[in-house]
Amino acid sequence: MEKSTAKKHPWFWFWSSAVASIALRLVLIIYFPNTLNFSSRPEVSTPITSLRRLAEGYWLKRSSMSPYAGSMYHGSPLLLSILGPLTIDRSEGQSHLLCGLAFVIADFITAILIRAIGQRLQVANIQSLKSLGAGRLSKISENFPSGDIASLVYLWNPLTIITCLGYSTSPIENLMIVLSLYGACTRLVPLAAFGWVIASHLSLYPVILVIPLVLLIGSGLDTPPRKLFLQQTHGEDYKKTTNGSLHLINFSWRPVVLFFLWASAWAFYVLVLCAISLKEYSGLGEMFKRTYGFILSVEDLSPNIGVLWYFFAEVFDFFRDFFLIVFHINILFMVLPLAIRLHHRPCFLAFVYIAISSILKSYPSVGDSALYLGLLGLFVNALADMQFSFFLFSGYLGTLLLSPVMHNLWIWRGTGNANFYFATAMAYACFQIILVVESVSSMLNHDRALKQGATAVAKKEEHEKILKNLENPRSGVTWEEYKSMRFTFQVSQMPLLVLTMNDLM
Amino acid sequence: MASTPETEDQKPKHRPIIRIGLLLIAHSFLFSVVCCTAGIVALLLLPVLSKKTYVSENALMPGSASPMITDQDVSGANRFMNELTSLKLKSQRAGIEIPRLIALHMANLGGEVSYHKFQNHPNKFHPLHFFTSPDTEANHVNKTCESHATNTVGIIRAPRGDGKEAIVLVTPYNPVNLSQNEALSLGIAYSAFSLLTQVSWLAKDIIWLAADSRYGQYNSVAAWLKDYHTPSFGDFGKLHGDGCHKSSDVPESKLDMIIETEVSDTLRRAGTMAAALVIKVANPGDEGEQDALNIYAEASNGQMPNLDLINVVSYLAVHGQGLHVQVEKVVSLLDSKWLKFIGEVFETVGKIARSLNPQWKFGIPVKEYVEGSATLVSSLYNQALGVPTGSHGAFRDYQVDAITMEISPKISYTSKNRQTQFLVRGGRLIEGVTRSVNNLLEKFHQSFFLYLLTSSNKFVSVGVYMIAFLLLVAPLPVLAASLYSDANQSNLESEKNKPLKSWRWLYPTKTVFLIHLWGAIVSLLPYFIYQIPDSQPTSRLLIWASLSLFLLTVLGSFSGSRSVQWTLLKSVTVSAAFIGLCLMSVINFATAELGALLLVPVCLMVKPWRVAGKIHSALNLVLVIIGFPGAAFFVVKSAFGFQNGSSLVEFWYWVESLWAWNSATYIYICMVHLPCWVLCIYILLHPC
């Protein structure tokens, strides 16, 4: 639907829908503040992100107690200082209006940044295709305004809207993650470092984004596999554009070192600020224990849409440490293989990391899903042939509608039990895994198609035969490449395996 | 969608689960027919598959102690009833005197007595009630002094308990116009209460709620429960009718003077409720030689109390008091010919099976089958409506298991002797049930919450009836997948260079989404229609219908492009229907089952009339007409012979009752059934 209108007035279309989505949020925040009570939904607000807990922490702090007293607040002290004053002036009936506005603004900035990233990605994409010397290749890769699509997907995603209305701090976390990506895309090293440090400070998991960020800063935006460019240079008398593409391949260390310097500077700065704000109550030690320790040791077992709470509610105490390590290593396990396989597409790699960490997080919420679904829109050109898209859409819709129903059945009606709710959480995790697997495999297919296309340009005598293949990019899956997909698939299925083991136990 | 021509070569590479999926998709027609038939057969088989109930919680031990009610209790009850009837005859102000009399007697027996005054709040329309937790509703009621009713609450503190749990006995009565039956039910409760004040084995507090039902039986109980569960800070009692009440009963009676010291206006509480029994007496029934006990259990949205409670009551009624226990059934089905025919078929099949292998115990006699089906249909209907069948429904909202026990005597009791006998029976039954529940250590959890009754001692559990439903809806996703892959394949041939071929479902999805949005708006419209003053039901209905049609055309102009392929559109519609039905089956199974019976055939069969043959189109048309909620309503009404009034008005009242009770069925009809029906019509008229 966007396409036809977008061709006529792309600007007008984008801005009007963006403003409409913001207006929708404002209307919902101002006129229906408590109708659906999203902030009490376990899907929306987690112990880490709940604004209610933040208000409690701020209250404790104002009455000169440690904000971490009583195991209510588990977020950053900085967030407390910034958002805390906004939670105070709640008059009767209007809860957290100012915070709501802050989150709306955060959402909007995130969307704008995603759009900017998308535009840069697209430019880079066109450039690299040109340097591969194939106007014909445009058949493989469509040219949608991926930035516009991605930011609209982010803004209009019901999950984003619910998160924004649910007064959870995840819009801020998402903003920081996107900010770091944007900084890395534009090679603004200090900005990238700032975003990364703050995002990791707020929710710890974005730490793993260091790999895509370094790749982005070091070697630039997403390109087709480097082998292709090399092929071009070795093969025949190809144009001088190869110089440009060769330049892309270089990994420049200097900005990377700068990035780390900036990151340590920012980290130091953040820690100092935290220490100052916690000076009177408790030291940084308690902060680490109550924030990162809380995230890593899964202390709060109240239900959420993740899979860990159920597991750790069931597991025997003496196995607890072991399984904590297993679950957290699960994320780290996938970091390296994926980085090797997708190192030429750092933005996509960042998307995959965010998706995986939001599956395996200790306290996931729909806000995390909102972020990676928005980022998915950035690769709309490459993922045009993604399989099971409709299946995934229906699955997401079904599980997300089922989840509150099951929760109601369990908590309010008392006719269900925890297994009902956990079943939807499992289904949700499955769909997320399928999404990751399918998007990765279709990205690999896309690369493969590009490769064939490039060879086709190089060897004109085979042109026709391969063009036929081009129309079905799926056709040329070699066994070798299939194996590599297998690997990614199996790796990403690990958590499921562990969970089924748990059920058998 | 994975079946491009090349997949033939890749077939060995597919994982087995995908291969099974592809096989099913390839034979979707056969699969649909087989599954649907199996689903309907399984539904018809439910009475055969029902199991005998059994008391699952060992702690209950029904009937392990002999009843202790003595003549003294019963004669006290008799005296109490006489006073009630004489008061009713002589006093003009029975509406105020009777609660006082009850309070006096409760206090004399040794209970703590308090009044609970409440005002009548007519049910309001909360379209999203189901998804919000009970606490979130703000309680903004402007308190007027004119009308309030008074519940009388008596509490026995358990000598052996810690006061943390309670059992509730409810006797609804109308103080303005007390009938003989209500007096009898009060008498039964009195006799039980009188015994329970003396016994030493009580571990849970007993609350006797004499509910003032002048504004409806449900409302009084619901109001009391609401106040009971609302935390009170400081002077809670003043919240209700302060000032107003004092002015209304200025002439203080002698009775009032006596008990003034003992009765408080503040709401007294006992512990959390373990179970609640609503005691009623019905008019003498004309069938059977025994007194009968009717059990009503359906609460809002098809929720049922724990089966153990029903088991205990029916066990004690049958084995202890020799009552004939029955559950509501659709009487008109009892002599339906086709049901008898099906019963005979099942009986013969059962006989054949037994002759082959005596171990196979399958099949039940025809009479039992017909009665079972009649009960099952009534059970399904009541659950599907989502409207509670009595004041016990109010308890279920607070997770308290409750049933209504309606005792109907064989002949009317005129002689005092017979009345005493009846009181003894009723009192013993209540005593037995109370004693069983008193034994419980935890709340009811052992037995089923999700079940359908086929008779008072037979039930179908969720594991069995879900099969019927799942078989019925299983074809939907398969059909959606096969249509989807068809559309993709045909697309590959026709428009090869069109981009984003795996994302083309976005266009039909937009249409489907708009129609569902329309459904949501339609479901909210009555809220605004009520703002129009002085309108007749018929005119309201017409306004509703015309507004909906208008909105539909507006939204239809939004969706614009008719170029959407009908196969894709149907695929998305079918998936939406599948998701909606599955969701509804979790919320309220009975609605989903009945909805699936109407919706699944339409969804499976519908095809644009230009593509389909004449007979097929005619069949589609019939199915679509029946599928319309209003039409379905009238068909069901006439088929089962429920009472007939002026049709449109009746339909309006029916819908009104649905939203007044916050039934999820209403949401289902407006947000799943109606949009799918509209989409089916859209497909039917699609110009391919």
UniProtKB/TrEMBL annotation, chain A:
Subcellular location: Endoplasmic reticulum membrane
Annotated InterPro entries: PIG-U
Membrane topology according to the record: Multi-pass membrane protein
Biological pathway: Glycolipid biosynthesis; glycosylphosphatidylinositol-anchor biosynthesis
Gene Ontology biological process terms from the UniProt entry: attachment of GPI anchor to protein; GPI anchor biosynthetic process
Record field: transmembrane: 12-32, 95-114, 175-197, 204-221, 256-278, 290-312, 318-340, 347-363, 391-412, 418-437
Keywords: Endoplasmic reticulum, GPI-anchor biosynthesis, Membrane, Transmembrane, Transmembrane helix
GO CC aspect terms: GPI-anchor transamidase complex
Family membership noted in the UniProt record: Belongs to the PIGU family.
Name used for this protein in its record: Phosphatidylinositol glycan anchor biosynthesis class U protein
Source organism (scientific name): Deinandra increscens subsp. villosa
TrEMBL record, chain B:
TM region(s), chain numbering: 20-46, 462-485, 505-529, 541-558, 578-606, 618-640, 660-685
Family matches, as InterPro entries: Gaa1
GO cellular component terms attached to this protein's record: GPI-anchor transamidase complex
Pfam families in the record: Gaa1
Origin: domain of life: Eukaryota
GO terms for biological process, alphabetical: attachment of GPI anchor to protein
Keywords from the UniProt entry: Membrane, Transmembrane, Transmembrane helix
PANTHER family, A to Z: GLYCOSYLPHOSPHATIDYLINOSITOL ANCHOR ATTACHMENT 1 PROTEIN
Name of the protein described by the UniProt record: Uncharacterized protein
Organism per entry: Deinandra increscens subsp. villosa
